[in-house]
Amino acid sequence: MESLANNCSAVIDYSSTGYTAVAGTDVIVAGANRRALPSQSLTSLGDFLADRFLGCQVGYRGLYYDAHRRLLTLPPRLGHTDVVAFFVSDRLRIEIEETAR
């Protein structure tokens, strides 16, 4: 995922203490070794989603994964949109809707 869309992935872990999340780039730098992750990079899933995802610090506008067709649509670049065959074995869907104030 990171080779296609840098800074667009997260690793979510569940343990007896709850859910935690970390940016996929941090996991790559640590060589997929949890013990090598900087302690400040691992946060609760709620904090990760609230701070990084909802704050638009992670991901690209227009990035979309069609799980049924197994296609990843990358945002338009250089006048065209890239569509790549891509299989995600485990996924989480989050939908955000703006509410009227």
Describe the overall structure:
This protein has helices at residues 24-29, 45-53; strands at residues 10-15, 18-23, 43-44, 64-66, 71-77, 80-85. With 101 residues, it is of the alpha+beta class. The strands form two sheets. The protein has a three-stranded antiparallel beta sheet with strand order 1-2-3. Strand 4 (64-66) and strand 5 (71-77) form a beta hairpin.
Set down the secondary structure blueprint.
Layout: E1 10-15, E2 18-23, H1 24-29, E3 43-44, H2 45-53, E4 64-66, E5 71-77, E6 80-85
Antiparallel strand pairs: 1-2, 2-3, 4-5, 5-6
Percent range for β-strand residues: 25-35%
Count up the domains: 1
CA radius of gyration: 15 Å
In angstroms, what separates the terminal alpha carbons? 36 Å
Number of helices: 2
**Biggest sheet, spatial arrangement of strands:** 1-2-3
Properties at a glance:
single chain, 101 residues, alpha+beta, 3-stranded antiparallel beta sheet, 2 helices, 15% helix
